[in-house]
Amino acid sequence: MSKTPTVKQMLFNLLTHHERLQFEHWALQSILINCPDAYTRRTWKADLERLWNDAQLRKSAHEKFVPLYTKIDEVNDEAAVIELLSKIPLTGKVN
Fold first, then answer.
1. How far, in Å, CA of 16 to CA of 22, rounded?
2. Does the predicted TM-score (pTM) go above 0.85?
3. DSSP state of 92
4. Rg for the chain (alpha carbons), in Å?
5. How far apart are CA 77 and CA 62, in angstroms?
6. What is the pLDDT of residues 8-29, one digit of tens each?
7. Continuous segment of H or E residues that includes residue 93
C-alpha cells in the first residue's frame, strides 16, 4: 500500500483544516468584538479549545461542510475531484 495520499485524502485533509480555521475565525471574531482587553487576547486559545471540544457546537459547524464531504466522497475519478475542487469558492461563505 502506497504511503502517498490520494487526491481524495488530500482534499479531505484540506477540508478538515479549512473547517478548523473557520471555527477559529468565529471564536476570534467573537472574542475581539465582545472582550477587547489584553487578558482575553492572551487566553483565546483555551477558549477555542473549549468551543472545539463542545460536541453539539462542533456538530452544528460540521453540518455546514457535510455537502462538500459528500461530493468528494462520491467522486471515483481523481480528475473529477480536481474539477470539483476548482468549483469550490476560495473566499466567502461555505454554502
1. 10
2. no
3. S
4. 16
5. 25
6. 777 788 888 889 999 988 888 8
7. none
